[in-house]
Structure formats: structure tokens, C-alpha cells
Amino acid sequence: MRYFSFAFFFFFLLYFNVTAQDIGYTTFGKGVRIMASDSSFSLKFSARFQTRYVGAVNLEDNSYQDRILIRRWRLKFDGFAVDPRLVYKLELGFSNRDTGGGDIIQTNNTSRVILDAVLKWNFYKNWTVWFGQTKLPGNRERVISSQKLQFVDRSLANTLTLDRDIGVQLRHHHTLGKVVVREIGSISMGEGRDITVDNAGGYDYTARLEILPFGTFISKGDYFSADLKREPSPKLAIGLTYDYNDDASKSRGQLGSFLSEARDLLSIHADAIFKYKGVSSLVEYTHREVVTRGPVISTDTLGNVTEAFLTGNGFQISGGYLLKSNYEFALRWHGFLPEEEIQRNDIYSYAFGLSKYIRDHNLKVQSDFTYSQIENTDDAFVIRFQVELSF
How far is residue 168's CA from residue 61's CA, in Å, rounded to a whole number? Predict the structure, then answer.
């Protein structure tokens, strides 16, 4: 499957080299841009990968474990078809972490390669409809691309995140003076990406409201981390998401493993991002609970948990400052507090991040140093170092 995908897309690019009117190589990090000779189709192709080192010290016995991995390896395609108001996005993942988990009947026992495959149609003024597979409008840090994070990876608040799903989203925005308001509604299958079987339960319903009281950020800066544009005036974006997954069959909604019994899951996400002259801050709260009759868990005859929906609360508070040299220092306090019934341990982490943005988020070196406290488990100190390249 992987080799077929590579061969197909390289043939696709070769074809357009012959037939396209315009092929653009604008600058590093902006991808390869192709326009059809009659201007009825455009394509931007780009690729990215993350190489990561992770080392962990057990603070009780001083043992050390480490590894190096390709955390993400992805191909991206986007553009418009027929009309500039009809755009598309396709993203494929080829690292083991991207394709893993597909050895189940629900994904036809194949690798999960497709991340995004979505059409976006701006059909009337400020109204746009999305159809296909992509991220649900959940908490901000999850919707921010993994390429554009302030730390090596996302916080523990995302333990309870929404994820990619297939369905339809309706988006609208309007302004009231300087204030920008965005509304998003979504109906999706509720079982995550690359599912091939019939819907096992009900649908997932998501609603999100965003308010930007001081106007829009430069270059959509409310959806990338660090104040790389050095906002000349204070900018703030506040978001609130409500999600109801009817008859959810996975332990984490769109994520996790399929369980033997379905339950209705209610999730709430609140977040706020602030940027001003190199200073940035992100605050998030996530919550999930089971709201239908029946236990959250299944146990064996000894009372041990055999199946459980992941419920509880997550949070993060982070902030950073970008120097004129494009080095950034950042701090983050984050945690996950599971519901007591599911018999999992509370986790708190304290992190210090140091990044060098060579070409914004397209070429950067990031590191973070985390002190992790897990209830009933030895404390640990974790070192992560990562290089991101996107072209």
C-alpha cells in the first residue's frame, strides 16, 4: 500500500510537469505549486517529517531508557478544483505511529494511511461546508498541526481530545466591529479515521464557538504555536467546544480500542490563546464523562478493570517568549486526572521548552525537559529533542 501510494503521487507530479501551465517553487516551506493550463485546478504538494530522541530517568532507581524514532512522516496535497471556492486537502501518514492500529476488522485489517481527505466549499459569503475525513473542531492544541507546536508534542490535556472523524462540518464567521465570531457545527460517524464497516452506534455531534475580541491574528496565528509574527497589538482567541458521541464504541471516542458495549460520551473543551510582541500563552481544559446508564468499566471476577471508557479531566497552562534571534523559551504545566472508577493514576507534568526556529515551523530544532509525577508510580525526568523539516 505504501509503495503504491508513493508511485501514484510521483506519477501524478510527473504528469503535471508535462501538462501544467505554471509550476511554482516559491520559497522553502511553501511546497511545490502547480496550476492547470486552463486555471481549473491547482495543487500544492509538500512533505514533512520529525526525527525525535526521547530519554527518561527513573528518579527512584536512576535507571535510564531512551530511543530515537521517526515520529511523523507525511505527505500533504491541497488546492482547488474547478472553482477557487471549492478547495480540498489530502494528507497521508507513513510513519509507524501514523499507520498503526489498523489490524482490526473495523479498518479491514489494513494500515491506516489516510489522515485527511476533505472537500471545503465556500458556497455563500462567510458560509463554508466541509465534507470528508478531517479533525473535528475540538480543543485548540489538537487542531493545531503537529508541525506547528511550541513543545515537542502536545500536552496531557489531549488525553481526552476529539480527533479525526468522517462526516460534514458547517462553518460560519462574522465580525462585530473589531470582534470576530466563528461558529462551527459537525455531524460525524464518531468512530475515528479510516473505518470501513457500518456505523456501530450513533453519530457524533460537535459544536464550537470562537471569539476573537481584538480581531484576527496575523497569518491565522491563533492556530500555530509561538508568536512568530510578533503581533504588534494584543490578540486573544477564546474557544468552547461541546461534543456528544451517541453510542460511542471506542474507549476514547474517535481514539482507543473498540469495546464490547457502547455508551454515550459527553465532552467539553475550553481554551484561550494570547499573543503579543513575542509573548504567547495557551490555556486549555478538557472533560469527558459517560452520560448513559451502565458502568463506565467492565471488570473480571477479581474486580480488575478489563474495559473502560477514558473519562476525567485534563488541563494545560503554557507560555513562551520568542527572542529576536528566533530562540524561544517556554514553560508548561499540564495534567490528566482520570475518573476514579476507571482505576487509572493521576498525572502531572512540568516542562521547560527550548526551540530554535530556523524557518518558522518549517525547519526548527526543539527540545523539552519534563518532570513527570504519576500517582502510585516512580517520578521521572524526560528529555526530548526533535528536528522538524517541512518543504
Answer: 51
Residue 299 and residue 307: Cα distance in Å, rounded?
A: 7
Average pLDDT along the chain: 92
The span from the CA of 210 to the CA of 284, in Å, is 14
Q: What are 171's strand-pairing partners?
A: 128, 184
Superfamily of domain 2-390: Porin (2.40.160.10)
pLDDT of residue 201: 81
Report percent pLDDT > 90 for the chain.
79
* Per-domain residue ranges of the chain: 2-390
Residue 192 half-sphere exposure toward CB, CA atoms < 13 A: 18
Which helix (H) or strand (E) element contains residue 214?
A: none
Please state the pTM of the whole predicted model: 0.92
Residues near 249 by Cβ (< 8 Å), separated by ≥ 6?
190, 191, 200, 201, 258, 259, 262
Q: With contact defined as beta carbons under 8 Å apart, do 305 and 341 qualify?
A: no
